[in-house]
Amino acid sequence: MVIVVCGPGGVGKGTVVARLVAEDPRLWLSRSWTTRAQRPGEPDDAYTYVDRATFERHVAADGFLEHAEFLGNLYGTPWPDPDGERDVVLEIDVQGAQQVLARVPADQVLFILLEPPSPEVQAERLRGRGDPPEQAEKRIEVAQAELAAGRALGAVRIVNDDLDRTVERVQRLIAERRAGGG
Ligand code: ADP
Ligand code: 5GP
């Protein structure tokens, strides 16, 4: 199974995914490539940081399951290589989700859209994380379009208000899928 977690910047994707992976050894988190600069305080292993030429060579060599440009930077998922029988977790944008849905059979994809309780809460979380104001503004500007696109693609929508509750809801969806339902 491929679990795709989408949602606007600051909604809590990274936080939720980190909890999921820490609590379930049967999940395998994909590490994306990006041309974006590392944020202050961002762990070295959050992404594989590359320059644009390196990224483009990898695209030309068909090295990505999906890739997209988001706010001027390139992001891509290398072809997943989970060890063992683990389910793959992708934390990607909605353009990437669309490509995954086109490439992976629907019954093998669990597509989750995390939604902020409100744009104000999203802005607060971006500020709290220390995003520079102009970057935070851009992420807030594109948020409504991202949410609309995710909903149109049929994602399961979860409002990330209480973190524990969000994690539990996602875990329940994963369990249902593994059991052959949902
Ligand atoms: P994203 O990966 O979607 O850009 P992050 O996971 O970096 O978002 O979260 C942005 C900020 O919001 C972080 O400081 C994180 O600790 C905080 N956060 C995430 N989920 C919640 C939540 N449910 N309630 C309150 N704060 C949250
Ligand atoms: P950020 O710069 O905030 O880390 O990420 C910006 C956006 O790019 C987020 O929506 C994030 O989920 C998305 N993203 C991260 N990695 C990938 C990837 O490999 N592919 C795609 N399509 N989007 C990604």
Report on this structure.
The chain has 182 residues and is of the alpha/beta class. The chain has one domain: P-loop containing nucleotide triphosphate hydrolases (Rossmann fold, 3-Layer(aba) Sandwich). It has 6 helices and 9 strands; from the N terminus they run βαβββαβββαβααβα. The chain has a 5-stranded parallel beta sheet, with helices on both faces. A 4-stranded mixed beta sheet has the order 4-3-6-5. The protein is globular and about 45 Å long. The relative contact order is 0.23. Adenosine-5'-diphosphate binds at residues 7, 9-15, 125, 128-129, 160, 162-163, 166.
Identify the notable features of this structure and list them briefly.
single chain, 182 residues, alpha/beta, Rossmann fold, five-stranded parallel beta sheet, four-stranded mixed beta sheet, 6 helices, 23% strand, globular, binds adenosine-5'-diphosphate, binds guanosine-5'-monophosphate
Number of β-strand runs: 9
The sequence of SSEs as H and E is EHEEEHEEEHEHHEH
Structural class: alpha/beta
- Portion in helices: 40-55%
CATH superfamily: P-loop containing nucleotide triphosphate hydrolases
Cofactors, ions, other ligands: adenosine-5'-diphosphate, guanosine-5'-monophosphate
The CATH class name reads: Alpha Beta
